[in-house]
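$ fold --in a.seq
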Amino acid sequence: MSFFNRFVAPHTGRGLKLTRGNNMAKTIYPEYQEHIGGLKMSADGKQRFFINIGTVTQSALHHHDYAELSFFIEGTGSESINGVAHRIRPGTASFLLPHHMHKLESDPGRTMSKYRCMFDLPLLFSEYEDPEFSRLVYGIGTTSSSFADFDGDAAERMMATMRQLHEEYAMPDTPGSRHMIRLKISEALLLFVRNATGNDRSPIKDGPEESVKMSPLLQYVHLHYTEKLALEDLSRQFRYSVPHISRSFKEQTGKRFHDYVRQLRIESAITMLLHTNMSVTDIATAVGFDSFRTFARAFRDMKGQTASEYRAMMRDGGSGALHGE
């Protein structure tokens, strides 16, 4: 028995199917997964963390309100995050921010083994937040790729970091364990960003220390972007003025607030178009648009065609090869 097979396989999501009438086809919706390794959000607000090594052959389309870092150590297959597919092999890593839509499937006859690390994002950010680190983490999936392929010394270092995280998790009563976990997650994510597929590695310009702590705001946006969300909501929630939040948002993300939210919604819509049979109208509502007209205009602006045209093109084989092949 191999070292990896001695661990319990992780839960894999099953797509939820709802029926609309006896004679109509079932509509497939993405599954929402609430728990981290069986851990519910605690009443005292303590941030959750879980890591294991397990096997997976298939995980249906799902999303959750926590972050997830995976590092694959055996097997091959493919993973899709927000509609972007990537080949999986030993040494591939993927990272999901809250509510990123994703699915996973191994190649026929193969089983994939991976480290699976799940945590509430506030665990990463202490009272003295590093603006650059916040930008890098929340840029994964937008300004940088959701995937990274590790080889050679870089793969060995990432493996060692994940192994140390796993060992630390097994010793919760060790002095400073929570802080060590935070440091090791931070190290793993920085290694991820440096090796991210398609990352142009352009340097981040130095600037003055931001007066607005962006990580709590971005966490809030990622958890609530499918709801009615405005700068005034952030102002009330975090006690900054609307102009100050607006200016800081643009400086730290490179996007205006409304453009950032719109991109999150369209990326979520793309995943539903590709991996569910929900109607375009239902998808528009599900991802947070007030009206179908607003959704249609935003989708065309971003993709250059209607949502129905995009779905038909991709289902007719327009998706091409997986990224990373």
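$ fold --in b.seq
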Amino acid sequence: MLPFTRPVVLGGRRYERRNGLLVKLTDGEDEGWGECAPLPGFSGETLEEARRELVDALHPQSWRRPDSPAARCGLEMALADLARRRGARLSTSGVERQAQTGSEGVSHHPGRPFQSVNAVLLESEGVPEAEALMDAGYSTVKIKVGGDPERDASRVQGIAQATGARVRLDANQSWTLDEARRFASHLGDTAIEYIEEPTNSLEDSRLLSGEGLPVALDESLRGMTPDEVAKLDWPTALVLKPMMMGLGISRGVAERALERGITPVISSSLESDVGLWGLAHFAATLGSADVAAGLGTSRLLSGSLTLPPFPKGPRADLRQEFSVI
């Protein structure tokens, strides 16, 4: 359990701490770490349900792929980390790089040595907090919206004008179609990269996109297969939370999105440093562009589980190995 530095409110739900499980896999001298942490109110399973699936999946006589997305994410993240660490060790020792490890045959995908990160502004934060984040080196900021449309539009305009940041928005499906249109109207010519899930209707999002509002999908992707995602041609971006989908499915969706010219953005579900390091490594293997990942949530946690801690800054250096403490 890790407490937040202050209560975090998402989608009307208040969080004071983050609970989860760490997954450790070993292969001789190599080890790999993952995190299984369903987010109450957003995940479809509880932590106890995910724990039971992990126990069953890791039983030596019944190794199998968990049904729980969070359990699957934790296991796949640990396998990918094990493959990466093993590959790096064999490569530096002059032995041919290994591509696979473990019974699941999870491939090691070489990635970029650095991964950019966007800052996150909560609904209660405004220009002073945004300016502090820009001073820390961030260039992209994600702003939580979903309250009064006119007030939110004014807040976004103020932040954009004061900082010059690349702006992403997230409404967590909080608005009706009329409210989303009012927000877009009051936003005027303020440039944004996209707004995530303005309403809880996929059709509403498609309509808003057609009206010129750049829309990204997040919650609407839950349960979609990569083949279903391949039929989408209107979103600006797909915000992928592997804790809600699993790493394997997230990769399949991201690859289909790239084929359609849609930007995949890997994002956290308020994981600890262990999960954030795993997600940063995963994001760095997708596509050729260094798209800022939504991993700037580490500043919300009051403690760290790794050395070094996941950076509270705009870029993660993936050349360094982390250890769990």
